[in-house]
Amino acid sequence: MPNDTLAAVYDDIVRTNPAQPEFHQAAAEVLESIGPAIDKHPEYAEHKIIQRICEPERQVIFRVPWQDDTGEVRVNRGFRVEFNSALGPYKGGLRFAPTVDLGVIKFLGFEQVFKNALSGQPIGGGKGGADFDPKGRSDGEVMRFCQSFMTELYRHIGELTDVPAGDIGVGQREIGYMFGQYKRITNRYESGVITGKGVTWGGSLVRTEATGFGAVFFAQQMLQARGASLDGRRCVVSGSGNVAIFAIEKLQQLGAVVVACSDSGGHVHQPDGIDVELLKQVKLIERGRLTDYAERCSAAFSTESIWSVPCELALPCATQNELDEQGALALAANGCIAVVEGANMPCTARAVDVFDDAGVAFGPGKAANAGGVATSALEMQQNASRDAWSFEYTEGRLAEIMAAIHTTCLTVADEYGAPGNYVVGANIAGFERVARAMLALGLV
Question: Where are the domains of the chain?
């Protein structure tokens, strides 16, 4: 840690949040960056802004009972961590996955605070989810789970209080079931209470594509800042869900060639480029596996690490800590010039160190994947005004927001003596926006 104050804060986080390594990792990454801001603004330390930002305003854990298709009663655990509302209502997705626990939700919520601040939208940070796995479940089972989940969650959310969205395991199907239950319980059509809705019932065009598109817009800005472009670049995108698929689509639209993508079973390598329309059919419509895609297009499928595939640009778009030190060393050795995080904290701390040492440009997730939540805020705007914007207009707004985030990161990094360091720029810029609001609001 850069100073004793921040070291003490980190030690206290570890002591009071045991067995939550992902939260510790996310907190350490921010605390290691903001030392110069604390030195420049001693009032942040005086008013314990750092300690207050690192402690959620509210943590909710609840039981989710439901019945499967055989009639067996199941019980899962649900979470909602409302981390910080200094800039607006809590905003952040819901993740349904067997790996979800309180530490994972807290890391995601903590990241969301700074990501949402960087977006420039009037939204605070929160996150939620459950240790429920929708894979292999029927539509009826997913509906019953979502209805039970919302039966508890509804009392904690609202368009002016807390606005959830989707994340891993929560797509438009799950959003629909939860919104329907919220509407039934509350007896009001409060469309702004949840985002990621279908476009015919209050959703926004571009929201489905936004995180992937936004990460590519950020990558484009990073390359342009170095006098380069996406045209002809060989790219690797991990994952094959919404974020990865639409990152692949936008990369190919802008002239890049995506040569590999993955899922939890392995990766496909296609030197001539991924067939994104077939990938959409298999993964988003049929909910199949990447092996199904590989069979249908005669692509090579491997269980080895995707990061061994040579590329110039890498976008980890799957899950946290998927790209470790060995993967980073392989990317650097194979000539990768930039890594842009489409997922939340997909690179380990050691991987980021490798990129720094090798001169590989690195775009952290809280900046690079902010397009999803930014477009969620645009969805909230449309709901509030009872309006619906065109795809072109909304995508243009997204591109403007991502360009502004990129500029902010570079400007703040320069201001604090770390030119070109997107991690420092993103962390300090996000922290200062929240810290100034917290000072203005008093001791609350």
Answer: 1-55+420-444, 57-201, 210-363
Domain 210-363 in this protein, CATH class: alpha beta
How many C-beta atoms lie closer than 10 Å to residue 277's C-beta? 10
Q: What pLDDT, on a 0 to 100 scale, did the predictor assign at position 12? A: 97
62-79 tens-digit pLDDT: 999 999 999 999 999 999
Q: Pick the catalytic residue: 91, 106, 115, 127?
A: 127
Known catalytic residue: 183? no
Token code pair at residue 358: 């090798």
Structure tokens at 127: 């996150």
**What DSSP assignment string belongs to 300-360?**
EEESS-GGGS--SEEEE-S-TT-B-HHHHHHHHHTT--EEE--SSS-B-HHHHHHHHHHT-
Q: Which amino acid is at 190?
A: E
pLDDT, one tens digit per residue, over 196-219 is 999 999 999 999 999 999 999 999
Fold match, 57-201 / 210-363: yes
State the pTM of this model: 0.95
Q: Which CATH architecture has domain 57-201?
A: 3-Layer(aba) Sandwich (3.40)
Model pLDDT for residues 307-336, shown as the tens digit of each residue: 999 999 999 999 999 999 999 999 999 999
CATH hierarchy code of domain 1-55+420-444: 1.10.285.10
